[in-house]
Amino acid sequence: MPQPNSAPPLALALAPELLVLAPRYREPRHRAAPSPAPAPPRRGARETRGARGTLASYRRLFATPGARAFTAGNLVARLPMGMFSVSAVIMIAGEYGSYALAGAVTATGLAATALVAPFTARLVDRHGQARIAVPATVLAVLGSLALLLCVRHHAPAWTLFAAYAATATTPNTGGMSRARWAHLHRGDPAALHTANAFEQAVDELCFMVGPVLAAFLCAALFPEAGTLAGAVLLLTGVLVFAAQRATEPPVAPRTGTAGTPLRAPGMPALLVVFLATGAVFGSMEVVTLAYVDGPAAGALLALQAAGSCAAGLAYGSLAVPGGDARRRLLGCLAAMTALMALPLLSAAGTGSLLALGGSLLLAGMATAPTMVTGMTLVQRVTPAAQLNEGMTLAVTALLGGIAAGSAAGGWTVEHLGAATGYGVPVSAAALALALALAAGTGMTKARLP
Description:
- The chain has 17 helices and no strands.
- With 449 residues, the chain is mostly helical.
- It holds the Pfam family MFS_1.
């Protein structure tokens, strides 16, 4: 997909997903009974009630038996998701001298993923995570290695499309991790809220670290290093994750009437909201790359991801907010629409990169709470036996939105200017809000206790 100034199409590299270190200590299972004598000081004794909301929630989350083990494997597997597209662009453009070819190859992979990922997730729901994720990952890794060899030997262009399309079998590791949390904390909305926030923070960290790591490996070692490292990390992480059978959700018995999660009440409305939200991410990245047109663009995009990551962790440490989840989603979308206007004002006003960086940091703070609430709604409306498929459909909608947002942002920059391009993310956020409002009662069944 063409982008302004021949910038690599990084917006196609959604994936969602990188390394967050879990706290290394546990909250005591039993609290000491009140006593007139002061209790001996313990680690964390200085925590106030406010601090308890920021640390204790995550300590409780990872005190769950087996949680740290499956999280470690999943994090290793998710890191390459932010590396593959960037590595492919650098590798293909360097060998073939064409960003257009590189963009077309990665766009083909995105389209293939949108078609194959829900089917892979359906198999996971029917047969279990370990039985499907491992062979699906092996196929995807073979596709990455085939792409590497094709580029290395300057094979015909059509082989690049075929090889990269084969990577579409990569399982939705983030969705499988969320499914494990949903299984471990069923009936505990507070813990599930914290888990969803943690997973979203992982996604945001992937945006910051994955592309940077890929670019560094390709530049410091050899052009194929990013793809090779990503393939090794993906396979290793999935093998470790799949080995944690104690936390794997059991395969739910399927009834003869079970169909696609698309038919679940509220799911179509949620998917169109995710589609518009994805356009916010895709357009923001392309417009920023065009506006800055230099190495500082990566740092500014990292600021946006950092703001989202910090807001996600803080949001997850709170108790489950009051009211139903649909109204919370509306509030998050309204906040995102308002904050996305800040980069537009900065670019059209002062033009200062410092001001733009601050506005992107603030704008990013609205995205994680929106995604956390949206994914929570997806979990609520999706039947338990189809949870992986439902969450993968949400990710697929985001991918489609990112592609559309990238195209819209690129067209706007080319025809109306880079500063005006920041109006596209604002418009996409406003569209997501309008779609959620128009859904009306379509999501009212997705209430949290």
